[in-house]
């Protein structure tokens, strides 16, 4: 969380889509910390996607500003191209992101626009696919892949560009447990290489066990941000915006204060099990 | 833009008015736009702008933008309408440019400018009527009006399905264009054609999947061949608008009579 | 039967796709005659010229959908697709309205008469949802895009198939011809409505024709090429 | 669960989609019990949707048979229409089944084909919308609704037909917690009126707390069926097909046998909390 203030910072962001009355973002100030796994949580319509579109300069703030590494975003063509090499976005719907007809072709699509040599392109694409467990699917037509495979292909396409910061919009939506695990594994590999990963989600259990840092949006404003322990420390705050608590956090808070004083809240089922074993004999 | 226009048509001051009445009013205005004197055509244009912007509270920006975009066709055709090529008779041409290497001259005549001006007056009036329909009446209700006009059921059903899937497909297509922009996109004619070909393929695949999905979905709901349309139901038209509409038309007609006398 | 239907559906959609994907916002120019542009007489004339084709097409489609109600869903979706692609160019400054002339391929698959219905419904949508083209000029626009274009494309396809029996060449020609004929017919419609003071209809045709030729001829060629690419894609699907 | 054998029964069902090699259903035998809340769980591609399409006669079994109230399904036009009046299906993607442009029109779509009077249609549609909390949205165009609202509209359309059995394919997929709660409330209302409700899902936590009866599919076969307690009694069985356990069942099974002997497994967070309070002092 070091250098947070110099990484991607949104200040007093305001944005209203044309012909809608309510603003999508309203005085939103929030910082994406470098090197973390950050989860942006909130309901549909809370402003998560709009925020991402601002991060890439696709939407321009109507008030406030976005800055990247200490400098305010510029919206010239050249500046945007360079920003978008450093910040990658994975769409919620992979159908929108996958343009070419095979995974290998699609992953190399972005690399080709960088003007790399064919051999390098080939190698980097293949690597990206392999890291996401798609090594054997490079030549399969995309319409024959499962949703989980498509999502990973879309991620591979963004990953191959080696951005510093990857934003994912609802990456696990519609995935079954197995595909979800594979996708999260892929994210872990990317994060392990030093990439900052940000995920928008409304799956509280996932956010709780995956993220190092949480940003809670509600009605276009930043409602809270901090570590999962901090954010979920007060159950009522989250419930007041209708988000509910992750099961584990909920159970933890229901335990008597004196029994758990000084302990760290369990972040996954394994830790919870260990904890219960201490109590239940 | 489609979404904006569509959203306005569902949320404007005239939303509750009977769609049949609105269409009838627009139809009369269309006819008047063709029949009346240019001066009165401009009056129609202004009058309808008042209805749309003041009464129906259509956002001015959207109205002006759509008007401007539609008028581009006129602007584009203007050279063909104004410029004459050949040998102007003496005193006919306003401005002349001799065409190099030939004996021909490009020139503009007073008659041509007058024709362009008259055309603009009629265009503006007709376009205003069209905008009135577009902005104040949601497509769903126009469909019911078309049914009252005895447009065949098959055509209505096709329109219904088109309208339903228009927005979904448009979101997809926009997403794809955006994704392409974010990831750089390629240069050169060959690469562009190849890319466009695959995007077309991807979109086509999606459209075909939607078709299969829809045919299952409708089968599950007991679709047996015909999509029954809801019955026509029109809201009342406040007396004020009826009076203003009728008296406006009467004034226009009287003015025309007086002018042609 | 099912396969054939899917194939023809795919082909219509593909035809429409081609044109619009290649021409990103800003490159294509207006070819639909705008609302109120034609004098009353000519507007009426083109309506009358178009209606018989529409009626015949309707009879044909009604028969087809009676046998197979699902065809309605297919045609509706194809129409939606066409419309979407044509609307994509909207934010552009240079093009006030665009037009799906991929009708050539649709005509090859479904027959030119069916296209007169589908094409004119798409035109009505463009008029009602986007103010592209117009209601009074719908007859003229439908005649050029939903009648003349498809018939020309269909004829070109048949002719090339007979002469060379090379499918790709035939598809290319059909797509390009439908484009070109639509453009020529529109120019004719404008020319006879607005004859030049000096030189009459012919000069006027040359003037209108050259304005639109700048964009329409390259478009016809690229549409032809892309149609062939998509044709290949379809065969592998 | 009475009359189970006479309700909807699938026997030795086999089905392979054209152009695929692996069968989607393979010797699947399973029964949907009357009056229950049944959850069909399994991965994407395990055959859940294919099973539902068979229940409505949209797909015809290539081997085996489906029977409804003791009689084998017939596939004539008339028989199918009458079957689909009694059995309703809500698809995962609401776009698939919404055809009209506004919720009110869409809900009345099905009723109109029943040949009811306009006033009755109007009233029943409005009622269905209101029961699902969509009373104020009847005239809004569907393409302006949120996903959660669309899903509820689709459900309302099926509900208004008053079928005996409603099948829902992944009804909560991708819904945020608030929309999910609204949808489940609607389902509760329907179930309370005596309708049998079946839901396909891969959300194990949801299945565990919602269902009375579980059917587990894997690779097109019925892997297990029974009450949630029965199905999740052996953690390893579920893990072997990659589905994992609901968090609550997982925690429960991790508790020492002697401590929980004779107790009923907690089915929701509330029950779990109570249980923990007994142990942790």
Automatic annotation (TrEMBL), chains A, D:
Membrane topology: Peripheral membrane protein
Domain ABC transporter residue range list: 8-244
Entry annotated with the keyword S-adenosyl-L-methionine: no
Keywords: ATP-binding, Cell membrane, Membrane, Nucleotide-binding, Translocase, Transport
Subcellular location per the Swiss-Prot or TrEMBL entry: Cell membrane
PANTHER family noted in UniProt: ENERGY-COUPLING FACTOR TRANSPORTER ATP-BINDING PROTEIN ECFA1, HEAVY METAL TRANSPORTER
Function: Probably part of an ABC transporter complex. Responsible for energy coupling to the transport system.
Name by which UniProt lists this protein: ABC transporter ATP-binding protein
Species this chain originates from: Paenibacillus donghaensis
TrEMBL record, chain B:
GO BP term, example: cobalt ion transport
Entry keyword Cell membrane: yes
Transmembrane stretches, start-end: 24-56, 63-83, 89-108, 120-140
GO cellular component: a single term: ATP-binding cassette (ABC) transporter complex
Keyword vocabulary terms for this entry: Cell membrane, Membrane, Transmembrane, Transmembrane helix
Superkingdom: Bacteria
Annotated compartments: Cell membrane
Phosphoprotein in keyword set: no
Membrane topology, as annotated: Multi-pass membrane protein
Name of the protein in question: Cobalt ECF transporter T component CbiQ
Organism: Paenibacillus donghaensis
């Amino acid at each position: 969380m070091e250098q947070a203030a110099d990484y991607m910072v949104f200040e007093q962001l305001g944005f209203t889509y044309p012909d809608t009355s309510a603003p999508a973002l309203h005085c939103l100030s929030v910082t994406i910390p470098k090197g973390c796994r950050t989860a942006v949580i909130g309901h549909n319509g809370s402003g998560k996607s709009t925020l991402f579109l601002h991060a890439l300069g696709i939407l321009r703030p109507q008030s406030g500003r976005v800055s990247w590494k200490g400098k305010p975003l510029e919206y010239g063509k050249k500046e945007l191209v360079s920003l978008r090499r450093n910040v990658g976005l994975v769409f919620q719907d992979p159908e929108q992101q996958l343009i070419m007809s095979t995974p290998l072709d699609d992953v190399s699509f972005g690399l080709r626009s960088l003007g790399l040599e064919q051999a390098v392109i080939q190698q980097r694409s293949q690597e990206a696919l392999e890291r996401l467990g798609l090594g054997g699917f490079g030549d399969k037509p995309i319409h024959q892949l499962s949703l989980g495979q498509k999502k990973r292909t879309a991620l591979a396409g963004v990953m191959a560009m080696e951005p510093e910061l990857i934003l994912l919009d609802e990456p696990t939506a519609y995935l079954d447990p197995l595909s979800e695990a594979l996708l999260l594994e892929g994210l872990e590999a990317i994060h392990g290489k030093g990439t900052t990963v940000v995920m928008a989600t409304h799956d509280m259990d996932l956010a709780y066990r995956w993220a190092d840092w949480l940003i809670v949006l509600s009605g276009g404003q930043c409602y809270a941000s901090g570590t999962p322990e901090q954010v979920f420390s007060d159950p009522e705050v989250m419930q007041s915006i209708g988000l509910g608590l992750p099961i584990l956090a909920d159970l933890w808070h229901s335990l008597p204060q004196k029994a758990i004083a000084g302990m760290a809240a369990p972040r996954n089922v394994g830790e919870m099990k260990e904890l219960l074993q201490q109590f239940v004999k | 833009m489609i979404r904006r226009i569509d959203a306005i048509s569902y949320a404007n001051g005239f939303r509750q008015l009977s769609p049949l009445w609105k269409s009838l009013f627009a139809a009369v205005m269309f006819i008047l736009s063709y029949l009346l004197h240019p001066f009165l055509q401009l009056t129609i244009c202004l009058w309808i702008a008042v209805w749309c912007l003041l009464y129906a509270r259509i956002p001015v920006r959207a109205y002006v933008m759509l008007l401007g975009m539609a008028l581009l066709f006129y602007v584009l055709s203007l050279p063909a309408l104004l410029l004459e090529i050949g040998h102007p008779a003496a005193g006919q041409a306003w401005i002349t440019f001799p065409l190099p290497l030939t004996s021909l001259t490009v020139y503009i005549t007073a008659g041509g400018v007058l024709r362009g001006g008259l055309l603009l007056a009629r265009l503006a009036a007709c376009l205003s009527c069209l905008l009135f329909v577009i902005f104040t009446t949601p497509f769903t209700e126009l469909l019911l009006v078309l049914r009252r006009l005895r447009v065949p059921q098959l055509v209505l059903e096709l329109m219904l399905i088109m309208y339903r899937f228009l927005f979904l497909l448009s979101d997809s297509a926009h997403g794809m264009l955006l994704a392409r922009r974010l990831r750089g996109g390629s240069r050169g004619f060959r690469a562009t054609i190849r890319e466009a070909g695959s995007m077309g393929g991807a979109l086509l695949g999606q459209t075909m999947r939607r078709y299969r999905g829809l045919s299952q979905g409708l089968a599950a709901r007991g679709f047996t061949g015909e999509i029954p349309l809801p019955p026509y139901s029109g809201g009342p038209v406040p007396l004020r608008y009826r009076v203003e509409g009728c008296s406006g038309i009467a004034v226009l007609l009287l003015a025309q009579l007086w002018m042609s006398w | 039967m099912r396969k054939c239907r899917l194939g023809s559906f795919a082909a219509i959609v593909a035809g429409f796709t081609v044109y619009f994907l290649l021409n990103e916002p800003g490159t294509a120019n207006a070819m639909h005659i705008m609302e109120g542009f034609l004098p009353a007489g000519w507007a009426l004339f083109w309506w009358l010229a178009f209606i018989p084709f529409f009626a015949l097409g309707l009879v044909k489609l009604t028969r087809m959908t009676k046998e197979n109600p699902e065809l309605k869903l297919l045609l509706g979706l194809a129409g939606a697709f066409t419309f979407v692609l044509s609307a994509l160019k909207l934010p552009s400054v240079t093009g006030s309205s665009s037009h799906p002339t991929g009708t050539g391929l649709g005509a090859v698959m479904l027959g030119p008469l069916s296209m007169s219905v589908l094409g004119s419904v798409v035109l009505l949508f463009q008029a009602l949802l986007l103010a592209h083209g117009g209601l009074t000029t719908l007859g003229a626009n439908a005649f050029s895009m939903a009648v003349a274009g498809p018939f020309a494309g269909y004829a070109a396809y048949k002719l090339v198939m007979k002469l060379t029996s090379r499918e790709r060449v035939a598809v290319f020609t059909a797509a390009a011809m439908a484009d070109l004929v639509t453009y020529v017919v529109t120019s004719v419609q404008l020319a006879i409505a607005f004859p030049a003071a000096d030189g009459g209809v012919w000069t006027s045709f040359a003037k209108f024709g050259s304005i639109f030729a700048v964009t329409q001829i390259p478009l016809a060629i690229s549409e032809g090429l892309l149609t062939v690419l998509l044709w290949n894609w379809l065969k592998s699907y």
